[in-house]
Amino acid sequence: MLPQLWIILPYTAFASFVIGHVWQYRRDRFRAFTAAPDTDRAQRTGRAGFRTGFALVIAARVIDLLTSGPDNHPVGGLFIGLVVVECAGVVAASAGAVLLFLPDLIAAPPRESVTPLDRITLPALAAGLFSGIIVRFDPNSTGDRYRTAETLFAWVRSLFTLHPQTETIRNAPFIYQARGLILLLIVGIWPYTRLSGMFAGPVVRWIRRNPGVARAGRDDSSPVAEK
Q1: How many CB atoms lie within 10 A of CB 80?
Q2: C-alpha to C-alpha distance for 115 and 190, rounded to whole angstroms
Q3: What's the pLDDT tens digit per position in 75-108?
Q4: CA triple 114-91-102, angle to 5 deg
Q5: For residues 13 and 185, what is the distance between their CA atoms, to the nearest angstrom?
Q6: 103: Cβ–Cβ under 8 A, 6 or more apart, which residues?
Q7: Do 29 and 214 touch, CB atoms closer than 8 A?
Q8: Where do the H-state alpha helices sit in 29-115?
């Protein structure tokens, strides 16, 4: 893959993530596929499971990223804790995703609630799950060498410094490159699927339920009153 693509693709995915959430907010305030009155119990359970599990996985990965270097990774109690939290999160998120997506994909409901992007979201999440397991237990990451920190973590950190280190991912084994592309796909399509309101929806509802917060936001964006 051309070096420039490892710069273009992540920033394109980030832009799609931000623009997509703004578009969804303006479109329906994240009401679609959130806790609607006609949502069945399985989907409500799936939503709660996915939200909790995904948050656990992200928390474990962020701690791993912040505490790891090319020549070291969490050990002892911290390592065991991260693995336990991540495994629990993976199980909860996987079960939640199945309950959230599979019934509509099978039943083909009369309303147009299943989009083409929704149809590829579940396979993308599954690919992210399996690639995460592979890199977590990569036998080449033993001893003083942590392959994830050398490749994915170094690349991700560099993206936020605006000096992308493309060589760290270009020279990585294929599974690490594939995992990076899978994660970028999930980030890029997230706002345009039924996952869009998974975390943004509760935030919007909380703001609407707290008039003081909503009023402060409106006052900040309104023109200055004439004296």
Answers
A1: 11
A2: 12
A3: 788 888 988 999 999 999 999 888 888 777 776 5
A4: 20
A5: 7
A6: 40, 42, 43
A7: no
A8: 41-67, 76-107
